[in-house]
Automatic annotation (TrEMBL):
Chain segments annotated as transmembrane: none
Gene3D superfamilies per UniProt: Ribonuclease Z/Hydroxyacylglutathione hydrolase-like
Species, as recorded: Colwellia psychrerythraea (strain 34H / ATCC BAA-681) (Vibrio psychroerythus)
Name of the protein this chain belongs to: Metallo-beta-lactamase family protein
CDD domains xref list: metallo-hydrolase-like_MBL-fold (cd16282)
Domain Metallo-beta-lactamase: 86-271
Amino acid sequence: MVTSIEIHAIKIIDEVIYYSHLLKWEYMLKILKKMIVSTCLIGSIFNSVWAENANFDFSVTPIVDNVYSIVSPSFGLPTPENKGWNSNSHFVVTEKGVLLFDTGSSEIIGNEIKKAIKSVTEKPVRWVVNSHSHADHWLGNAGFTDTGAEIISSVRAVAIMKEDGQGPVDAFSRMTEGATGSTHVVYPSLLLAQGEKRNFGGVDVEFIFSNDAHSPGDVLMWLPEQKIIFGGDVLSSQWMPILTYHGDVPNLIDTLNDVVKLNPEIVLTGHGEATTGKSVKRDADLVAGVWKLVKEGYQENKKPNEIILDVSAELGPLYRPLYDNFDSEIKRYVELMYKRQQ
């Protein structure tokens, strides 16, 4: 019989392995995980019929006449409560079919997204863009193989996807206690070049690379005629920009400032509600401000805890009211940026 402590330990270890990829810890954690798994009959827990009967409410939010969003109500890691649905998808209805941006974190979720799209149009999904390699944005690809959709991403993002392989599917199933079910891994087959432009069913689209701002190979999608940008996890709305261990902070600042120059009227993000270019400017200034204070503090031989106090005192009054998670996230910001100085 699997105990709740064992299940909780496995979930924590998987989250650390998948999200942090701290190589000097990863080998030890994998061994520890195997030791835990070998002592329990864990398989029966995750073959739950709950995955088959998961009830999702994938409502569609109109953005403009031909652009729609499917916004997840959850922010954070996949959990039993959110059943793995923790990221947004957006789609464009064109003359010749649907262009979809991100497919969610499981085949179940991909199929639910497909149903939601059918509530708007009977046109098939002909093109899928995966914004980046984090599994909550692309494991739903399998839901679109029957439409013959062309699945698109960057070379670097696909390389990470293939490196991770089946691991994210198994990790998400464990973190959600089986709610994400079994997912057939489908990788993008069309690889983008930096600055590539295409016309999808009469809609002009430009692809922007962030130079690994959030993760290796991030892709943003820009509709120049409608001045709408799809940002994946590079762009944010009510939450602070998501910094990661393998992201590049200076490139994030540069990318955010480049997006500001486009003067977007609508910004569609990987998590949270639709927003405007003002949010991108806010994010650029915040990240640049923290980066500056961390660099200065490091040069003055200050410890991370001292710098956290400096950042909170100097930037908190302005930015705390602008984000839902300033106080919970600023410590992680400083610690991650501090490591970049070493």
